[in-house]
């Protein structure tokens, strides 16, 4: 064999060896996200269709405009920073720097790669400048991979907690047979998550227990983050500070109608609460937003709680605990399928004054299948990255640039 051929063969073998080596090193040290399976995609598609049924009602609603007025706090109403030194629940607000706040995420180990997407979004758009902590809670122990990957990505301190059994199980006053029959019936009627036990534990936990977890005990504010969300615009201000300085307690970005089938009697329990604890009802509450007939019935409006920026001391207050306990004793988390979104929303609507609820118009947000973009065109344009680039370089913008969304 000619010397030239030997060299070529050696070169090919060496290249193959190098490729195999690189492949083994990368696949053993860096875990990879799994591709979505057919069943994941089908689940998402099903959810989108289910949500679209609800969305139609929103479009048809003649009261939509008045509701908007009730809940939107325009940016121009902001008080200048540094004007107040106590938060709405009396804790002190530092003059500058970080607030006493944390992100909080409930997740399973299997949610890892979906929560990684959310972390990337939150860090890039906001937290890389603030380094707030992040608390993860789970009904099972988090595994090493989950902790390693999330800690690597988060610029603040990460904490991992396990949920006590009594916060994630059937309370003893629940009739198991009755609850099982409800799940079977809801499965037949194809109600979203209607047959799920774990989803019910999740909703009850988010309604009544997450804020009592010891890992959250020392914080005053939380920002709830779920897997697979997107944040479309830079968040160029500190929402925690904004909340404290403007005496806000509960902040949201999207509100919509709850599936009626999941909460048929939640308003009965709410009325029971209102009768029993009139002292907990705020004088300037949002009943007009919750009900179209002055409290006779619930119109199913709720803040979409997969995004929340709110005050933990409020949730830990006697007023909120009395509300949760009244609802919990009636069993609707298991005999129906009450979600934490209507529970938090009714609580905020009744126990807070209207001006303590904040609509974060400036935060562009997506959780399947709905998006919120800043409502005002000028705000959307201000927050666009490409506009910044043109402005920075003093360039004229191309025709039609207003219609683009990046
Ligand atoms: N630890 C744990 N977290 C859960 C469980 N079910 C849901 N979650 C979390 O609860 C939140 C809501 O669940 P998700 O599947 O996003 O519900 P959806 O947004 O209502 O469709 C997410 O943060 C999930 O990661 C569960 O069984 N165990
Ligand atoms: Mg979710």
What's this, in brief?
By secondary structure, this protein is an alpha/beta fold.
Summarize the SSE layout with pairings.
Blueprint (H helix, E strand, L loop, with lengths): L2 H27 L8 H23 L3 H8 L29 E6 L5 H19 L2 E6 L5 H10 L4 E5 L13 H13 L8 H12 L12 E4 L5 E2 L7 H7 L4 E3 L2 E3 L8 H11 L10 H4 L10 E3 L4 E4 H4 L2 H13 L1 H4 L4 H12 L5 E3 L5 E3 L2 E3 L4 H6 L2 H8 L14
Parallel strand pairs: 1-2, 1-4, 2-3, 6-10
Antiparallel strand pairs: 4-9, 5-11, 6-9, 7-8, 11-12
The chain binds guanosine-5'-diphosphate and magnesium ion.
The site of magnesium ion has 3 residues, from loops.
End-to-end separation: 60 Å
Mean pLDDT: 83
Q: Spans with pLDDT under 50 lasting ≥5 residues?
A: 25-84
Number of helices: 16
Estimated helix fraction: 40-55%
Domain count: 2
CATH class of the largest domain: Alpha Beta
SS elements, strand count: 12
| CATH architecture verdict of the largest domain | Alpha-Beta Complex
Q: What name does CATH use for the topology of the largest domain?
A: Spore Coat Polysaccharide Biosynthesis Protein SpsA, Chain A
> How would a crystallographer describe the biggest sheet?
7 strands, mixed
Molecules bound to protein: guanosine-5'-diphosphate, magnesium ion
Provide the succession of SSEs: HHHEHEHEHHEEHEEHHEEHHHHEEEHH
User: What is the rounded Rg?
Assistant: 24 Å
Approximate strand percentage? 5-15%
Biggest β-sheet: strands ordered side by side in the sheet: 3-2-1-4-9-6-10
Features of the shown structure:
406 residues, globular, 3-stranded antiparallel beta sheet, binds guanosine-5'-diphosphate, 16 helices, Spore Coat Polysaccharide Biosynthesis Protein SpsA, Chain A
